[in-house]
Amino acid sequence: MSRDTQSKETLIQECDAFRESLHGAQLKQLLNFLPGIYFVVKNFDGRVMMANDEAARLCGFENETEMLGKTDYDIFASDRADTYVKDDQHVLQTGESIIDRVEMAPDPNNSINWFVTTKIPLYSHENEIVGLACIARNMTDAYEMLRPYTEMNEVLEYVRENYATPIKLEDLAREASLSPSQFERSFKKLFEITPARHILNVRIRAACNLLSSSNDTIASIAMETGFYDHSHFARGFKKVMGISAGEYRSKGRKSPW
């Protein structure tokens, strides 16, 4: 066995041991912070063993505790439960996952939403299927949450394509079909930085790439990335990166983005 193979096997063993040491509630806590993500774990009998807050709410419960031990027939109308149980049995009996199935489902307010659902089998240490995990993404909620960001897509693309040239606030406001004052307020509220700081970040990111991948002089890189002189570039680089461009290049650091 080669040293590389041994190292890889050791790493896999360390990762397995680390995963086994984790408490399931820690991972569930992370899922509670993912908007529009519904997470449920069921045992082989179809009873809920774990659920995040979003799943409990979707199923009409105050919290996970109220949902534990319930089956789909305790939670949903029989026709809906039949569909879910049929999918669950396919996963449990065959070991085949259901990946990204698009389906409609009602929420507690009787609205019909689109969900993308994935179900995977869960195995014991003896490699026997003991249950399944299900994640469903509410695409309706996700769209509403992402809509403000998608409305700024044209602005972000404009900066990405034109960072090497002078960019005025009026140019960006025009891309967003807003007045300059409206645009600046909306951008800052959405991204928590000003448009000017975003432009600076993009230019510095581009400069980092050139410093790491080319032999161009720092002065020429400053001009290539939209800075009107070397001192302007030096101040901007130090402000964003915390070190000078020369120090960055000498350390051979990669771009953090």
Automatic annotation (TrEMBL):
Q: Name one GO molecular function term.
A: DNA-binding transcription factor activity
Q: Which Gene3D superfamilies match?
A: Homeodomain-like, PAS domain
Is Membrane one of the keywords? no
> Which residue intervals define the domain HTH araC/xylS-type in the entry?
153-251
- Stored SMART domains: HTH_ARAC, PAS
Per its UniProt record, what Pfam families does this chain match? Answer: HTH_18, PAS_4
Asked if the keyword Protease belongs to this entry, the reply reads no
Q: Which UniProt keywords apply?
A: DNA-binding, Transcription, Transcription regulation
Family matches, as InterPro entries:
AraC_XylS_family_regulators, Homeodomain-like_sf, HTH_AraC, HTH_AraC-typ_CS, PAS, PAS-like_dom_sf, PAS_4, Tscrpt_reg_AraC-type_HTH
User: What is this protein's record name?
Assistant: HTH-type transcriptional activator Btr
